[in-house]
Amino acid sequence: MTDVIDIDDPTTDPFDVARAAAHALAEATGVARHDVALVLGSGWGGAADLLGETVAEVPSTELPGFSAAAVHGHVGTIRSVRIGDGDRHALVLGSRTHLYEGKGVRRVVHGMRTAAAAGASTVVLTNGCGGLNPAWAPGTPVLISDHINLTATSPVEGATFVDLTDLYSARLRAVAREVDATLDEGVYVQFRGPHYETPAEVRMAGRLGGDLVGMSTTLEAIAARQAGMEVLGISLVTNLAAGISEQPLSHGEVLEAGQAAGPRISALLAEVIRRL
């Protein structure tokens, strides 16, 4: 399916494209409403299999406004999953569009707006990231308590003022700790990428109050809040950030850490979703 409405046209309302995508999604999956949305970042892909029965799986490019997956380790499909034995459904976004791909902010946050248009009131955003705390070994999940957006952009267009005071829900973090009381939390700092941060930039992030560094999530979280969704963010520390460790950074290291931690974090996320 090609875009019915061009999301890249500045005269187009991106929420119209989201509504068109949600309508196409309902037709393709046979599910009229999805209750919760998940964005599965590096290392988190196995969680969808533990949630329940996959009702339908749709290539993301068949829905208006979505782009093909551009990062190794991300899956370019959208799944509708029945949560447990109940009548709730999760919308699982297996890939995200990153800002560094150069496709524009609207495409970066289109999944959030589509999920809200499909009925989701809650979204769980996951990612793989670098950690500033040496105690967080690769494979450690960390709840996001707040963020610092260093992308120099926003998904909010025009004179629309969105309060981000409690963007990352304390209620949802408490639910996550009911599942795993050992979960720590920290402030996530998004850089534009795709290059990794320099040691000096990592030191800057720490002095600004950051604990985690990565290349995603903050713009999606802002768009989710604008759309009225409650947000839970969870990062998987896949490596120590530049300068914290003497080891050079590589995407292969990110994938390897994600694979090693996969069973634990997938079970954690699936149980959190069941309790929401």
TrEMBL record:
Ranges where the Nucleoside phosphorylase domain occurs: 36-274
Pathways involved: Purine metabolism; purine nucleoside salvage
GO cellular component terms, A-Z: cytoplasm
UniProt keyword terms in alphabetical order: Glycosyltransferase, Transferase
GO molecular-function terms, A-Z: purine-nucleoside phosphorylase activity
Membrane-spanning intervals of the chain: none
GO biological process: nucleoside metabolic process
InterPro entries, sorted: Nucleoside_phosphorylase_d, Nucleoside_phosphorylase_sf, PUNP, Purine_phosphorylase, Purine_phosphorylase-2_CS
Subunit structure: Homotrimer.
Family affiliation: Belongs to the PNP/MTAP phosphorylase family.
Physiological role: The purine nucleoside phosphorylases catalyze the phosphorolytic breakdown of the N-glycosidic bond in the beta-(deoxy)ribonucleoside molecules, with the formation of the corresponding free purine bases and pentose-1-phosphate. Cleaves guanosine, inosine, 2'-deoxyguanosine and 2'-deoxyinosine.
Protein name as it appears in the record: Purine nucleoside phosphorylase
